Amino acid sequence: MSPRRSPQPSERQRDPERTRAAILDAAVAEFAAHGFAGARIAAIAARAGVNQQLISYYFDGKEGLYQALSEAWRDRDGDLAATATTPAEQVRRYALEALHNADAVRLMAWGGLEYSGPASDADHRPRAERLQRSVDELKALQADGKLSADLDPGCLLIALMAAAMAPVTLPHVVEGLLGVDARSPEFLTHYADQLALLANTLGLAD
Amino acid sequence: MSPRRSPQPSERQRDPERTRAAILDAAVAEFAAHGFAGARIAAIAARAGVNQQLISYYFDGKEGLYQALSEAWRDRDGDLAATATTPAEQVRRYALEALHNADAVRLMAWGGLEYSGPASDADHRPRAERLQRSVDELKALQADGKLSADLDPGCLLIALMAAAMAPVTLPHVVEGLLGVDARSPEFLTHYADQLALLANTLGLAD
DNA sequence: GACTTTGTCAAACGCTCAGATGATAAAGCC
DNA sequence: GGCTTTATCATCTGAGCGTTTGACAAAGTC
User: Fold this and answer.
1) Could you check: is the Cβ of residue A52 within 7 Å of any atom of nucleic acid strand C?
2) Cβ of A173 and B161 within 8 Å?
3) Domains and CATH numbers, chain B
4) Cross-chain CB nearest to A175 (options B118, B168, B175)
5) Which residues make Cβ contacts (< 8 Å) with residue B151, sequence separation at least 6?
6) CB distance A170–B154 less than 8 Å?
7) Residues near B101 by beta carbon (within 8 Å), at least 6 away in sequence
8) 3-state secondary structure string across A53-79
9) Which chain A residues are closer than 8 Å to B154 by Cβ?
10) Residues A115-135: pLDDT tens digits?
11) Nearest to B127 by CA among B162, B166, B78, B89
12) pTM, two decimal places
């Protein structure tokens, strides 16, 4: 019988995988909350329950951590579109991301404002490909005469995306105008419904 | 003949008003470009061509400057709605703000992401009142049967606002998907037209 | 014309924060 | 069991940055 060469990873005192993951998780929360400039690696380390130096050990400092995080999340947020039925339903689900995946939405919003210029192509291509499929769906609807042919599908998609992110990007406006907490589940579901309704009105109900 | 008590303000060597204004202008550019956490008061002072210390002298440090800036801009961005004819036209003009008033749009976007919770009521009331009038217009359209009564006017307005800001909040997506510079006048006008078209489709054409 | 107030600047201070160094111990290997 | 590699930590360092200090001159006052 072979000797117990290594205990279960969960009971290990030293577990590189766990540590890496803990740092990444904490980084997501911190960067999503405060953006790159506002994030503090001391806060990330504290949240992850590890020594601050490990961030330099595993990743290459703050910048490297941010890039690693971007890579890790780049391909992760496209699952929702796969299972959605109609484009209108896709819009609703995208809006509901603010409820179930608020950090991802915030990261995208920070990324937009911090965006300075065309980075490496590889950086955006995966997302672009995924979105391109949505554009194709819209074009198909136009071919069927269900969606006005005057509309530029690309612009429409971007408008819907931005609209879906509104509770994250404009919480102050939501609260000032409607007097409700933009992050509350009640508002987020209501808003997602409204957006789906709006998409239906445009003819995106398949 | 009275002695020349003071030369024209423009030739003065020391002109508090001019200095204050220069700092505020520079602050708008810097905060719009990098957000609060990313802004550097050294950069603001350099841009304004004044000594860095004057920021503490006139305003109360970085925080105070940001608040002063918010106050100064709070009532300034509502003029566009006044002269617009139809709601669809309002939407187009709002989208074109990204072209003529990019800093204002970016400041609002940063403000949304940096927003932590209900601040002083006075902070958002002026904007809320202005937006409330837009909501009233939408309600009137619903009463006339021109706009679907199922839609929540408040949510619709917020969705349109966020959509109009898309070139500012999602430039990376625009460039990844459409392959064009999200800040170029060509795209911005095209996008504004598209958004007006979309608003028309919804029934916002007066 | 002397005196006060106000606007401006250069330099210094102190704090925050990201990254480096070196010590230490656990894990893997023979 | 001894050696090497790997993971982790406490502490230090150096740079960046916001603010304070103190000097000084222009503008205003009598």
Assistant:
1) yes
2) yes
3) 9-64 (1.10.10.60), 84-202 (1.10.357)
4) B118
5) A194, A197, A198, A201, B142
6) no
7) B77
8) HHHHHHCCHHHHHHHHHHHHHHCCCCH
9) 177-178
10) 988 876 666 677 788 889 899
11) B78
12) 0.90
